[in-house]
Amino acid sequence: MRDFAGELEERKAAGLYRVRRQISGPQQPALVSDGAPLLSFCSNDYLGLASHPELTRVAAEAMSENGLGGAASHLICGHHDAHHQLEERLARFTQRSSALFFSTGYMANMGVISALAGRGDTIFSDRLNHASIIDGCILSRARVRRYPHGDTDALETMLKSTGGHKLVVTDGVFSMDGDVAPLRQLASLCKRHDALLVVDDAHGIGVLGPEGRGSLAEFGLTEEDVPVLVGTLGKAVGTSGAFVSGPGVLMDYLVQKARTYIYTTAMPPAIAAATCASLDLIEREQARRDHLQSLIRHFRQQASAMGYQLMASDTPIQPIMLGDNWTALALSGALEERGLLVTAIRPPTVPDGEARLRVTLSAAHTWDDLNQLLAGLDESRSLLAPAAEQAV
Known about the structure:
The protein has 392 residues and is of the alpha/beta class. The protein has 2 domains: 18-46 and 286-391, Aspartate Aminotransferase, domain 1, CATH 3.90.1150.10; 53-284, Aspartate Aminotransferase, domain 2 (3-Layer(aba) Sandwich), CATH 3.40.640. The chain has 16 helices and 15 strands. The chain has helices spanning 4-13, 53-66, 74-78, 81-93, 105-116, 131-140, 152-160, 183-192, 215-218, 248-257, 259-262, 269-284, 286-305, 325-337, 367-380, 384-391, and strands at 23-24, 30-33, 36-40, 98-102, 122-126, 143-147, 166-171, 195-200, 228-232, 242-246, 309-310, 317-323, 340-341, 344-345, 355-360. The strands form 3 sheets. The chain has a 7-stranded mixed sheet, with helices on both faces. Strands 1-2-3-13 form a 4-stranded mixed sheet. A 4-stranded antiparallel sheet has the order 11-12-15-14. Helix 9 (215-218) links the parallel strand 8 (195-200) and strand 9. Helix 4 (81-93) runs parallel beside helix 12 (269-284), helix 5 runs parallel beside helix 6 (131-140) and helix 13 packs parallel to helix 15. The protein starts with a helix and ends with a helix.
């Protein structure tokens, strides 16, 4: 039998062991974690909508009217009026022809990629794509070619030398680096080389673009430019689930072929209703995004002045690059002692030697919150080297 306990000990020795936190109460910057109050800078609730009273009110009313569970898959008897209304609302929000509501972003990527490519086809995937994209590529049984991160020249060389059906898939905003894919260039390449482009904008929807419509809208790209858009609803939107939007014929094809859509119970109708309310807030409350961008600019200026190595990101994802696992754990621990929750990100989530703290900012953070984080970072700089040496 495989030595599972031994493997766990190896992970601990390498600084790779992961522990779940127990959170009490609503998701918001001021959290209670394992019974202790902490100020969180590691959530993906970029607009601060996860605990918005309007969304909880709409969800409660919808539960009172429609019950809780989805009860069945969409193709049996689970496709509720609320799901249909959300899909129509998502199509309007993303300015696309049609949309499908999935249970999670992971399931959306798995289902979309494995439905749109198969044996004999070729998928071109950015080397830093999310695990759900990687697993969708594996599930498809297509040939997978990974191109260097954001390198459109390398991708074009690969596309030129490949025949048959081709699918290019990329994150819109990369979840660990916070940078945005070269979407205009990718769209142009795919048109020239007859490849189908799929963009997972999990971390762009709600944050980027006019009225928060995402990274594609930020660059003025339409359904014709990028046929398939995937987005999650549990991040900036503040609810749960995911969606795919694009031409009606492709959405119909996914209903027939996407296994993670066909063979799973539909999400609770109340979640769909709350998501419609969230999209209304996102469209009309530009002040949330304006405040968020101000926080991002100030954080980058101040953290850089302290000597911290940041990545080229103008999004709420602001990684502090540290290199080795123990240094990342040491800084995370020092901040937690000061009442700040910032998670250490280590391999395999990021490449070896690229451990970091993934600071994420939210429109729900106040200026006082941000100043508390910056003060903690300033106080913790001197602790990094000794802590790392002791751990080793």
